[in-house]
Structures are given as C-alpha cells and as structure tokens.
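User: Before I run my own analysis I want an independent prediction to cross-check against. Here's the chain; please return only the structure tokens and, at the end, one sentence I can use as a sanity check.
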Amino acid sequence: MPYTYDKKLRIGLVGLGNWAKSVYLPILLKREDVDIVAVSARTTETLDSAKNLISNEVKLYADYKDLLGKTDIDAVLIGLPKDVTGTATIDAVRAGKHVFVEPPLFLGERFFLLENLISSLGKSFHVDVELNYLPIIERCKEILQNNNLGELITSKIALGVNWGSTSQTSKYAIMENVIGLSTWYISLFDMFNSSVVKSAIYTSLDKETPNIGSIKVGYQNGCLGEWQFNLRDYPSPNLNCELILTNGTIKCDLLKGLLEFQVQDGNIIKETHPEQNLDPEIAESMGFAGMKESVNEFIDSIYSTRRDRLFDLQKYTNIKNIHSMLYSYLSLEEPS
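Assistant: Structure tokens:
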C-alpha cells in the first residue's frame, strides 16, 4: 500500500561513498517527509562519518544484510561497487524494501529473477539513470509528440569533461569504465525511441586513448543512437543532445537548459529551461545533472497511488543488452 504523508519514510543508505555523501544526503536532508535512519558501509571510518553527516541517532551496520533485516526500514538507496551491486539489489528487493540503485547494474541471467521479484512484491524500484528526469528531456519528448518533425533518425549525446589523464590505468580498465559510464547517456536514447536494440560498437580516438571516442547503437526500426565522449581534456563540462528527424531537428544544452527546435513552417523556436548544477553542494561534478529530480521521483513514487510513476525494469533491457554487445565487441569479460 502507498504511504500517506502523515508518516515519514524511513530510509537506509547501503554504501556511503562520495556520491552518496555529496548528492543523496543534501537532497534527502532537504525533504521533510523522510528520515535517514540507517547506514551500512565496510569501513569504520565511513561509519563514523555518518553520525556527523546525518545524526547521532542513525544506526550503523558493517554488513548491509543486517540493515536489510530491519523491518522498520522502508526504503534503501544502494551505491556500491559494480561487482556487488547486483547481489545487494536482489537482496534488498527480497527483503521487501523500496529500492533505489545506482547503475551500472550487471545481473546476467539474474535480470529476469529481479524482474519477477519486483513484479510480485509490488514495491517501488528505481534505477538512477538521472538524465532521463531532466525537465528539458521531458520537453524534448513533448516536442516530438506535438510537432510535425517527422520520424526520428538519429539521437546524439555529446559529453565533454576533464576527468584527468589515465596514463596509469590499463586501456582495458578504461574501456570497462566507459561502458559502465555509458549507462547514464545511452539511457536517453530510449526516451525518444521505443525500438529494440540490434547492435552496439565502441570506437576510440586511437588504441591508446579509449576515453575519447563514441558508442554507436543501432535499433531494429532503423534508428541510430550515438554517445560521443571526451573524458580527459575537455576545457569545461559540456553535455549536449541533438535529435535528427526527417523534417527537422531538436538541439539542447542539458547543463545550461538551452533548447531550440524547428517547427513545420521552418521557423526556429528557442527556449530556456532551468540550468543544472547550480546547487553548490552538488556542483562539483556535472554527472549530477538530474540527480535531484531522480531521487525525488523515487521518493514520490512510494507516496503516490499512481502505478505509472514506478520504474519499469524493462526500461533497462536495452541498456543491459547494449552493455553485453559492447563487452562482446571488445572481447572483454562481462560482469555478472
């Protein structure tokens, strides 16, 4: 049954890394309808920091399974290394919690087990592909639906950041990192195109620079998706989206909130939407764009009686399949 607003949602954090500290906490602590009551982490240092960051009353657990065993915890936010995220997610759903999980989510054949568990238990489940929840992305969807721009041909997402040199990291580790990072960007393709993925390839600037390149995705309906990335020497954070259609284009700057599109008579319409990363508490990484909307969507889905607010794990199917195709294309072993 959905909660009512006369009861605060009791939340546990499974993992308290930099992401949770700098993003989850500022967002959750500003909401009056939730209480962060428990934290699990592997190190004593991290657990000790939780009381300073949250409150002296927060319960601390070295093993996340002990946290999941507490029946007074309603929901958990999971932010763990990718090699344990899948198992922890299944454990949390089995424990009857509402679950918010930070991708990438590598499950292998367990994907279908998790899908069945979510369906049978009826709890809110949310994979944090936060760019999907940006208001400007919702506006792009409206334009596609309401204007005669024709059929979608190509979706392009371009990311430019300066996340430093990776000279001390093997090219294979960089490729795996890029595949995991792609989750947040290739998920946008499915916001505009409902077809099944057919192919995915990874191309880089050269063999020694795998953190500058692109991931190209083909769909059964003929649409294409391309994520272009420069992760090492872009002068300032940049994240753009371009939708190419048979009768026009839509272009937007996802960080600055700038959008323009061509209408049927050929005129260009320009709009301004809220900028991202203006909150100084979460402004250090451009990867946080849409995080506030994503976390709030999860919390609101628990309180809401609208079942369409719930995240459908089927929405993650194309992402899962793209990951598998990329690992195969690069002859890398896929996590499971």
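Sanity check: DSSP finds ten helices and 14 strands in the chain.
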